[in-house]
Specification:
8 helices; 8-stranded mixed sheet; SAM-dependent_MTases_sf; Methylase; alpha/beta; Rossmann fold
Length: 273
């Protein structure tokens, strides 16, 4: 049977930011797995703005569309509680049958992109919009970002089934700020392999003439030029390839800490459709 899950559509117009009556969104497949979002969790934990938001009075983080299992929401909660034990972490699901009792310091409620009337500092929605029509993405973004607390961030992305390849867009009240690509060092042959898990708004844009295709092609070329570092492992090879990209003028935000993941974070304007 053909899989039409990527054609889901929701109604985003006319919803009140304070409404707790009707969640905005469509029930998705809801599949997940243990540590599936670990690459995002680690990155999020070390993000300077996230750390700043965690010091707000009564900080709140929402995980929208956590799916049929609470696993990834609880895992994110553990990371966030290391930043601030008093941070509230809530998983929102549009399917009432998936709403669970509180556990492991995390609570669960009925809700969708309207954020159940909350005004959080942090919002995450992974592997949700990839199941929607692409022309619904920006409406979903606006619905969430209009409800953020001052200075709040929204992370929208996708990953493969076991979390080896993961990508996400960081947004604030003004819209998308940057794109991050993250992958297991031994999980790819070339950096462009991560393209299969690009966010919905970009995944069909990886064709010649588009910005994202230009970036991934440049990354593959830099990876090839860094082949001499392969004996030191793919993590070191990617560090050298990323340095080549920076030397070529790509405005990549390089982490000052040594990470177990391969990361590429770049301003949204560089890759926007």
């Amino acid at each position: 049977m053909a899989d039409h899950a990527h054609n889901l559509r929701a109604t985003f117009t006319g919803a009140s930011s304070s409404s707790k009556v009707k969640p905005i969104g469509v029930i998705t497949r809801g599949t997940t797995g243990v540590n599936r979002l670990r690459r995002f969790d680690r990155w999020c934990f070390h993000h300077p703005h996230v750390r700043e938001l965690a010091t707000d009075v009564a900080p709140l983080a929402l995980d929208v569309g956590y799916g049929a299992s609470h696993t990834t929401t609880v895992e994110w909660g553990r990371w966030l509680h290391r930043l601030n034990p008093d941070m509230r972490v809530i998983g929102l699901e549009i399917n009432p049958e998936r709403v669970l009792p509180p556990q492991s310091g995390v609570s669960f409620e009925l809700g969708g992109f309207e954020l159940a009337g909350y005004q959080p500092q942090l919002v995450r929605a992974f592997n949700v919009l990839r199941q929607y029509d692409v022309d619904q993405v920006e409406a979903a973004w606006s619905t969430v970002t209009s409800r953020l607390a001052p200075g709040g961030l929204f992370f929208e992305g996708t990953c493969d089934e076991i979390g080896r390849r993961c990508t996400w867009i960081t947004l604030d009240a003004d819209g998308p700020r940057e794109l991050t690509l993250a992958w297991h060092p031994w999980g790819i042959t070339t950096p462009s392999d991560v393209a299969e898990r690009l966010p919905k708004i970009l995944i069909h844009r990886n064709v010649p003439g588009e910005k994202i295709h230009r970036l991934l092609s440049a990354a593959d070329t830099a990876w090839k030029h860094a082949a001499g570092w392969e004996p030191y492992g793919p993590r070191v090879r990617w560090e050298k390839a990323r340095a080549i990209l920076i030397d070529e003028g790509w405005p990549i935000r390089a982490s000052r800490r040594r990470t177990s993941d391969c990361l590429l974070t770049i301003p949204w304007s560089v890759v926007s459709p």
